[in-house]
Amino acid sequence: MEFRFNCHPLFRQRIVLINNSLLPTGFVAQHRREALDATAQISEIINFVGQLSAQAQGLSNPVTTSQKLRNSDHHIYLMFESNQKHGLVVGILKVGRKSLYVFDQNGETVNVTAPCVLDFYVHESRQRGGLGRELFDHMLKEENIHPEEMAIDRPSEKLLGFLQKHYGLYKKIPQMNNFVVYEGFFANKHHASDIDGRRMHITASPNTNLFGPTFTTVGEQLRSSSQTRQQVVSPPVVQQPPVGRYAAKRPSCSMAQIIHNSPTTVSTEPNSTSSSTNNHHAPPAASTNNNDYENHHHDHDHLHHDSAEFDREQEADPEPQPGSNNGDGVAEEVLTANMRNLSMSEPTGDYIDYHTDHHHHQLQQQQVKFADDYADIPEPEADPDPYSFHPHHLELSQQQQHQEMMTNRENSASPQSISQQQTPEHPGFKKPIRYTKQHTGLKNMSSGVGAAVMPSGKMEFDQEENEGFGSVKINRPIGKSSTRNSLSGDNDNESVHSKGSDGSHGHFDLKFYHNKLW
Ligand SMILES: CC(=O)SCCNC(=O)CCNC(=O)[C@H](O)C(C)(C)COP(=O)(O)OP(=O)(O)OC[C@H]1O[C@@H](n2cnc3c(N)ncnc32)[C@H](O)[C@@H]1OP(=O)(O)O
């Protein structure tokens, strides 16, 4: 590598050492201008040779530049070959200390500050001529170090062969980085591996990735090594019970229990309003009539009501008299009616488990009674899947609800009595058949919500057009008087019910009306 300037004044020796001053060792300048020129010339040499080295190693960017050297404490050894002209630079070797995380022979990660071979290049015209060995030996002498004590930064195949041939280095210690260290590396007194008697403990665990490496003292290492020899007995894992809101009782999904035919919890409190009291473990025969009513009533709730609706109904409906057979029969009737409306051709497994033969016989009697009461209601077709929802379920429900509402309106002087329907004390008591969203699948269908929450409040709206099944369009703000309702003379309670697609009445949640975006 020949340059445009005379290199002889720069290379007073065959191999010169250059540090961050960018002046070769032994260089003596008479004037400041000479020193500046020498620095510029050395910079040009380093950049040029570094570029050739990068090309020889197939690197996109040179490892060695004058700028990098100026900003570091690394050393560069340049080999010079004198001639009759400007002279030739034939080799370069850059070394320096680097802080590394390397594995030792035991696989333990150790942080060391070790001398490293960072760049090494001999011009192609001089390779395999012994120049490399000469340059490397000079460096080892100057650094007062052995070759196995150095870490090699991403060595090429040529350098690996070079080191094996000249220094017998072939036993590598596997590493996770690009550096190669050989056996004997950790016996080096030049390594600043220990920091205040501690060694960096690094593993490939997630903790290391999250929190970085940790220091381990020598004592801890001894303890850890002694623990590995002993049989480590890990303490048993204790399952901690859930606390806080996770410990709160979750509401049971009655529909999921029906679908999966899973056993439900048993309510031990007779007056409990829990919706999941499908009593498998307490046979009805052992209970009183009142308990029977409770259980059946809760079964009815289990099938057709969510807990909030049921609570409101419990407040509206007075409890039957203890010992009265009427309550049990009413509950059975409602249960039977609900089963009919769900097109349940056969009782479910839970249902069979629940009822004794006596109750089943009683149930059949109530079915006959119910059929007489609802003889005018068209019978739905047999449904092969009793749990699937069909539109005729809702149509039947709406027809029944409409019929019952009209009946209740006739029997009641106040419109509020819709939510306070006839009780077991009253003759001709009929439990209203109400469908929830669990049965219809419609989110905005909810029976009794408007009547229970705002029995006398004016919730009026105009239904501009019927947009389909169970949907209405409100075209004026809430509170404005309804022309249609005033003309038709409907009462307040009727105003909270919208008309379904078939002209029958449906019920909509209050949240439906309060959504201004709708
Ligand atoms: C950390 C780093 O810098 S890694 C990058 C190392 N640099 C390079 O790969 C650049 C291209 N190669 C070179 O510059 C040189 O080959 C060097 C610096 C590796 C060695 O310099 P040389 O003057 O050739 O070394 P020297 O002549 O003293 O030793 C020769 C030995 O090096 C190895 N070697 C040198 N050149 C080659 C080569 N082209 N292919 C295989 N091995 C080679 C061989 O072991 C060879 O011994 P052999 O000739 O008996 O097979």
Automatic annotation (TrEMBL):
Primary enzyme class: transferase
EC number assigned by the record: 2.3.1.108
N-acetyltransferase domain span: 1-186
Biased composition (Low complexity): 224-243, 262-279
Keywords: Acyltransferase, Transferase
GO biological process, one term: regulation of microtubule cytoskeleton organization
A GO-annotated cellular component: microtubule
Alphabetical list of Pfam families matching this protein: Acetyltransf_16
Reaction catalysed by this enzyme: L-lysyl-[alpha-tubulin] + acetyl-CoA = N(6)-acetyl-L-lysyl-[alpha-tubulin] + CoA + H(+)
Family recorded in the similarity comment: Belongs to the acetyltransferase ATAT1 family.
Database matches in HAMAP family: mec17
Protein name per Swiss-Prot or TrEMBL: Alpha-tubulin N-acetyltransferase
Species in which this protein is naturally found: Aedes aegypti
